[in-house]
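Review form for a predicted model. The reviewer records the input and the model, then writes brief findings.
Reviewer: anonymous (R2)
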Amino acid sequence: MKNYLWIFAITFFTLLSCSSDEDDVQNIDQILDIYIKDPSGNDLLHPTKDGSYTVISMNDNLSDVDIAPVNFSRKMIIDSTYYLQYVSGAKRQLVDDNGAGDKMYKSQIILSLTKKISSTQMDTPIVDTLNVFYRMTPSAFEVSKVYYNSELKFTKGSNEPNVVTIIK
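Model under review:
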């Protein structure tokens, strides 16, 4: 009887060790980097420079409440070029569901930009709309397309970062 118990235990642990450690993991790729430049390619997001958008806010347009700020951060790369980084926070609205696990979501963000004219003067805020579409599959949740004021500015390619450049 003890032999059967040992054989059962060895068989059980052998089968247990053969199980896969590779669970299905969904890759999440939703960080969006937004650069705003003038037609000459000059950065318009410098936080203290005259002629740049120094006061910036983002508001969720699909939120259940009127004022729903969306978190973002202003970041700088090595050459002193600034960009806005949006990770998440705006409500996602289901746009399409094919029933096979693939879904399309949309976030709509109102972007308010105020340009610094001089050390004492600010321009009237410009209000723009940013539509971010996300594709969700069993293996990935990622930014798919980005529209800025109804103009397509980004379409996701294979293994490329989510970088949008706006010319103002």
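Findings: The chain is about 10% helix and 45% strand.
Further findings: The two ends are 82 Å apart (CA to CA).
Recommendation: see findings above.
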